[in-house]
């Protein structure tokens, strides 16, 4: 177990799950609302905690009401808060996230009105008591000084740096770290078309560091000191549910695997696997819980495109409607928005495979199989509540 110090920005995420991404000026209902601690560093430390490490956070925190939610969230995640720099003025940084249930994409609007950690505050922390320091590549006016002063106290402890965006002066921090993780956003901002070309350039700045560039569905490129650049494809994901925090999971898993003395290739494979698992579940809780502990609710072999399968579900208020659709599976709570009764209350649910609709047996409302919208009937434009599921490679279907 390592004692890890993470330095960056902690914030409040307000996540609205929606059945699709809204068009401009459209009014839609969220299927779920979550308030949670967010920010790359907080997420990374939370995953490291789940991997068995002790973690402390260096960040700033406001004095407003929302900051209490952050403090209690950090406590729940087991992240140490003794190094938080408090500001009376300013407001809690907040990210408003639209999580599209259809694709798993997350669209983020940031609100920022709080200074970041200053050098004098950081300089008082006894960094030599930690086994690993992980910095977010932001707050550049203080970052270089913070890494430099840390290095005067550290003897053998590695420093990792996440470079997510191209910020003026970030190049001065790159040669100071032992492990640098670049995002594809940074690579694109620098005009590179893939991670290999970025790392070729970055090796000139940090020839003795482990370098990585993550690139979403294209996987990751990596290079150990004095070694060639290699590529790791993405770990196969049967169904993407939620990509928020996948990059932070990757970073945490990478730090963990390197600390366990795995070579860089094995570490990247492990990180890719854990990030893939994260994409198949909502949030970061219980990331290491084996899916085999749960029971599948059905198998895709039981489904067809022309009739529904209704399965009972103890975890939800309603049973679940399952139906095959465009080589995947659609799942909805079996509850008609017209009168809060099961769609099969009076008779079975009729499916029209040509119009791709399902009909409520009570008052004949028609719902699209695609996203559960009522297109005809007494609750027109209302929606069935979609159910998040995991579809495994063997066809087993689990509640997410
Ligand atoms: S209860 Fe379904 S249409 Fe009325």
Model description:
This protein is α/β, with parallel strands linked by helices. The protein folds into 2 domains: 3-289, UDP-N-acetylmuramoyl-L-alanine:D-glutamate ligase, CATH 3.40.1190; 298-399, Rieske [2Fe-2S] iron-sulphur domain (Rieske Iron-sulfur Protein, 3-layer Sandwich). Helix content is 22%, strand content 29%. The protein has 8 helices and 23 strands. The protein has helices at 40-50, 65-76, 119-123, 140-153, 184-189, 195-205, 246-259, 264-279, and strands spanning 3-7, 11-18, 32-38, 54-61, 79-86, 91-100, 106-113, 132-136, 159-163, 179-183, 210-214, 220-223, 230-232, 298-299, 309-311, 320-325, 328-333, 350-352, 357-359, 366-368, 374-376, 389-391, 396-399. The strands form 5 sheets. The protein has a 9-stranded mixed sheet, sandwiched between helices. Strands 3-2-6-7 form a 4-stranded mixed sheet. A hairpin with an 8-residue loop joins strand 15 and strand 16 (320-325). Helix 1 crosses helix 7 (246-259) and helix 7 runs antiparallel to helix 8. The chain is elongated. The model has no long low-confidence stretch (mean pLDDT 92). Bound molecules: FE2/S2 (inorganic) cluster.
Task: Let me know the number of strands.
Answer: 23
Total of DSSP H or I helical runs spanning 4+ residues: 8
Chain oligomer state:
single chain
How much of the sequence lies in strands comes to 25-35%
Cα gyration radius (Å) = 24 Å
The N- to C-terminal Cα distance equals 30 Å
What is the total number of structural domains? 2
Would you tell me the structural class of the helices and strands? Answer: alpha/beta
Order of the strands making up the biggest sheet? 5-4-1-8-9-10-11-12-13
Helicity range: 10-25%
């Amino acid at each position: 177990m390592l004692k890890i110090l993470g330095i960056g920005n902690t914030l409040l995420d307000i996540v609205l799950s929606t059945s699709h991404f809204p068009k401009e000026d459209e009014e839609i209902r969220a299927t779920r609302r979550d308030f949670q601690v967010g920010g790359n560093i907080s997420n990374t430390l939370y995953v490291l905690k789940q991997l068995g490490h002790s973690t402390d956070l260096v960040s700033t925190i406001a004095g407003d009401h929302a900051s209490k939610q952050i403090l209690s969230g950090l406590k729940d995640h087991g992240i140490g808060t003794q190094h938080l720099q408090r500001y009376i003025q300013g407001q809690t940084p907040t990210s408003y996230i639209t999580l599209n249930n259809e694709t798993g994409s997350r669209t983020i609007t940031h609100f920022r009105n709080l200074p970041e950690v200053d050098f004098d505050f950081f300089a008082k922390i006894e960094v030599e008591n930690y086994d690993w320091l992980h910095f977010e590549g932001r707050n550049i006016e203080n970052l270089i000084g913070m890494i430099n002063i840390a290095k005067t106290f550290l003897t053998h402890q590695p420093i990792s740096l996440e470079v997510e965006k191209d910020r003026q002066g970030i190049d001065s921090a790159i040669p100071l770290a032992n492990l640098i993780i670049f995002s594809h956003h940074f690579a694109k901002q620098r005009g590179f078309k893939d991670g290999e070309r970025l790392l070729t350039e970055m090796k000139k700045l940090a020839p003795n560091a482990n370098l990585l560039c993550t690139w979403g569905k294209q996987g990751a490129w990596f290079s150990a000191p004095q070694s060639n650049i290699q590529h790791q494809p993405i770990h196969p994901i049967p169904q993407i549910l939620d990509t928020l925090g996948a990059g932070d999971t990757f970073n945490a898993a990478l730090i963990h695997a390197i600390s366990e003395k795995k070579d860089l290739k094995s570490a990247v494979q492990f990180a890719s696997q854990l990030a893939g698992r994260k994409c198949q579940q909502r949030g970061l809780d219980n990331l290491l819980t084996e899916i085999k502990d749960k029971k599948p609710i059905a198998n895709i072999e039981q489904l067809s495109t022309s009739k529904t399968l209704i399965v009972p579900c103890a975890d939800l208020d309603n049973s679940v409607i399952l139906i095959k659709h465009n080589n995947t599976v659609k799942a909805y709570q079996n509850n008609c928005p017209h009168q809060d009764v099961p769609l099969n209350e009076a008779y079975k649910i009729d499916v029209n495979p040509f119009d791709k609709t399902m009909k409520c047996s009570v008052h004949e409302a028609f719902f699209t199989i695609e996203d559960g919208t009522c297109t005809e009937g007494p609750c027109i434009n209302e929606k069935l509540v979609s159910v998040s599921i995991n579809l495994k490679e063997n066809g087993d279907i689990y509640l997410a």
